[in-house]
């Protein structure tokens, strides 16, 4: 009987720790101030439908904002943009000018639908279903499948 109770406790502890690492809703007022300012700068007066926070490492969090018109933003707790996504096109002010120029020159009829900063590279998805990869210094690397 003790073994069953112990197993049940261990299972519930693992389940709770997994839940604790998942995304949790948070009020916009509880988001770090620098991050609030960043979102307001580019996206207000759009209505924020949902803000979630996820702990990714000790003292490191990811905040995801879902906006009324379908844009989804992901920022670090230090107000560093990690990802912006909208199937109808994203706010170009968030994409480095050098990358914008490259896309205007090479794909003049394309719209940027996703911009992601990931481990030393930047990934751009276009509405023509192409995925472009740039260095962290905005130099074109390749087209991915």
Describe the structure.
This protein is of the alpha+beta class and 145 residues long. The protein has helices at residues 2-20, 33-43, 97-106, and strands spanning 24-25, 48-57, 60-67, 72-76, 81-85, 112-118, 121-126, 131-135, 140-144. It has three helices and nine strands; from the N terminus they run αβαββββαββββ. The chain has two domains: 1-84, Nuclear Transport Factor 2, Chain: A (Roll), CATH 3.10.450.360; 86-145, Inhibitor of vertebrate lysozyme, Ivy (3-Layer(aba) Sandwich), CATH 3.40.1420. The chain has a nine-stranded antiparallel β-sheet with strand order 1-2-3-4-5-6-7-8-9, with no helix packed on it. The radius of gyration is 19 Å and the shape is globular.
Question: Which structural category fits the helices and strands?
Answer: alpha+beta
CATH class of the largest domain: Alpha Beta
**Major sheet attributes:** 9 strands, antiparallel
Number of helices: 3
**CATH third-tier fold name of the largest domain:** Nuclear Transport Factor 2, Chain: A
Shape: globular
Looking at this protein, list some descriptive labels.
145 residues; alpha+beta; Nuclear Transport Factor 2, Chain: A; Inhibitor of vertebrate lysozyme, Ivy; 2 domains; 9-stranded antiparallel β-sheet; 3 helices; 9 strands; globular
